[in-house]
C-alpha cells in the first residue's frame, strides 16, 4: 500500500509542477490553484507513505521519479531539448531508484 500512496504522491507532484509552469509566475488563477492543490495532495500522500516506508527511500523515489517525469514532460510536450547530459541525468535517476528498491528498501 505504501508504494501505491507514493505513486499517487508522485503523480500529484508532477501535476502540480506542470500546472506551475502554466501559472506564469502565479499570475493565472486556475493553474495557480491547481499547483497549490497538487502540492497539498502530494505532501499528504507522502506523509501517509512514511507510515510504511523509510523516509530516505520514500523521499528519494518521490524526488527522483518526479524529477525524471517532469524532465520527460518538458522534452515531450513543452519543446525543451534533449541533450546528452539531460538524458544521462534521467538515466542515472532511474538507475538510482532501481538500486534503492533492489537494496531492500522498506
From TrEMBL:
It is found in: Cell membrane. Coiled coil: none annotated. Keywords: Cell membrane, Membrane, Transmembrane, Transmembrane helix, Transport. It is a multi-pass membrane protein. The keyword Transmembrane helix applies. The chain crosses the membrane at residues 29-47, 59-78, 84-103. Signal peptide: none annotated. The keyword S-adenosyl-L-methionine does not apply. It comes from the Bacteria. InterPro entries: EmrE-like (IPR037185), Small_drug/metabolite_transptr (IPR000390), Small_multidrug_res (IPR045324). Belongs to the drug/metabolite transporter (DMT) superfamily. Small multidrug resistance (SMR) (TC 2.A.7.1) family. This is DMT family transporter.
